Amino acid sequence: MKALVCDCSVSAAWCLEDETSAAADEVLALAAGAEILVPPIWAAEMANVFWAAERRGRISAVDADAALAALGRLPIRVDTGTPDSAHRLLLVARARNLSAYDASYLELALRQGVPLATLDRRLSEAAHAAGVELVMSQSRQSDREN
After folding, report:
1. Would the N or C end of the chain have less CB density within 10 A of its end CB?
2. Count of beta carbons in the 10 Å neighbourhood of residue 130
3. How far apart are CA 104 and CA 1, in angstroms?
């Protein structure tokens, strides 16, 4: 696999012990040698995941910093989109009844023509309906709603 889009639910599962999953580990193994594409919102989402986990006592600040450093060593590329990105996001969100945040991952996968990795059921259903290949089988994904 040359490239894939990875959403926050998967990358958070790589870092938070209480969110680990075989499906997320499968994505990490498949991503070896591949470029992981993320939209610009991913950085804010990851920071929010770690900040919320710290506030709830799920992770220490030291461990959150170490996890972010580990993510920084992965071949993750932030795709900044196109001049019409906001309009494209609105169209995808509207067509698939997604938040603009979730639509940003689907729009990126559509635009780049690459598979999508997500643990989010609604996003995976929208990707399937849009004809985007999912990295993980539906049966291996969690039933979380984000």
Report:
1. N
2. 15
3. 21
Q: What is the average pLDDT across 7-29? A: 89
CA 60/CA 51 separation, integer angstroms: 10
pTM of the model: 0.88
Write out 21-72 in H/E/C secondary structure.
Answer: CHHHHHHHHHCCCCEEEECCHHHHHHHHHHHHHHHCCCCCHHHHHHHHHHHH
| Residue count of the chain | 146
Q: Identify the architecture of domain 3-140 in CATH.
A: 3-Layer(aba) Sandwich (3.40)
**pLDDT-above-70 percentage for the chain:** 93
Residue 54 CA to residue 63 CA, distance in Å, equals 9
pLDDT of amino acid 36: 95
The residue extents of the domains of the chain are 3-140
Contact in structure between 82 and 88 (CB atoms under 8 Å): yes
